[in-house]
Amino acid sequence: MSDVDDPDDAVTTLAYVDEPLLSLQLGEVPYWLDYQAVVADLADDGVAAPEPFVDGLRTVVDDAAGRGLDLKVVYTEAPAAVYTDARDLAAFLNEEFEGTIFVRTPAFVGSSSDTIPRHRLEAGQDDAWEEFDPVASASVFAHKVAAPAPAWGALTAITLVLAIVAVIAFATVLRRRRR
After folding, report:
1. Mean pLDDT computed over 115-138
2. Euclidean distance between CA atoms 110 and 33, whole angstroms
């Protein structure tokens, strides 16, 4: 472990010499793409992407709307600097548009929503990131976040009732054996 902070190590030297890549700051628009063009493109049909992907992504947006998900999709080939840039872009766009925003770059995915909890968005992002094709990636995300969640309250109640019935049955069997 003594080599970890060795000042002669090339990685350590690079980390001290170069400035770190920072995520976007509050109110700062992404510098790595034309933000106003993305806003205008999303306002048109809910999709902002290079032309070869637009029809496929429109299909994903329409399919999601059919399942009750207000989805907007951004695919850009612009190079985001850090993984949080895609999420930050989605959050900025979510200030302009209601619903759920999914952003895909060549290396990163991000999302924001005013209706879906963060843990479901993250689960959708995790699965979507594994798909390199932007249309497949958006489709996986939409299906994951729109999937109905298990009825945890009902499952807990059923488990509790079954546990109580099992305890009563066990107590009844023990009482009969003692006689």
Report:
1. 94
2. 15
Position 83 scores a pLDDT of 84
CA-to-CA separations, 25 to 22, 28, 30, 98, 117, in angstroms, rounded: 8, 5, 9, 22, 23
pLDDT in tens, 46-80: 999 999 999 999 999 999 999 999 999 999 998 88
Residue listed under structure tokens 């497949």: 136
161: left (phi over 0), alpha (psi -120 to 50) or beta: alpha
Q: What is the pLDDT of residues 82-109, one digit of tens each?
A: 888 899 999 999 999 999 999 999 999 9
The span from the CA of 123 to the CA of 128, in Å, is 9
CB proximity list for 101: less than 8 A, separation 6 or greater = 71, 72, 73, 74, 90, 91, 93, 94, 111, 112, 113
Strand extents, DSSP E, 50-146: 71-75, 100-104, 109-113
Hey, which residues does 74 pair with through a beta bridge?
A: 48, 103
Tokens read off for 47: 């999709």
Pairing mode, strands 71-75 and 47-48: parallel
Locate 141 and state its tokens.
């995300």
pTM: predicted TM-score of the whole model, two decimal places: 0.73
Question: Taking Cα atoms as reference points, which of 25, 49, 28 lies closest to residue 37?
Answer: 49
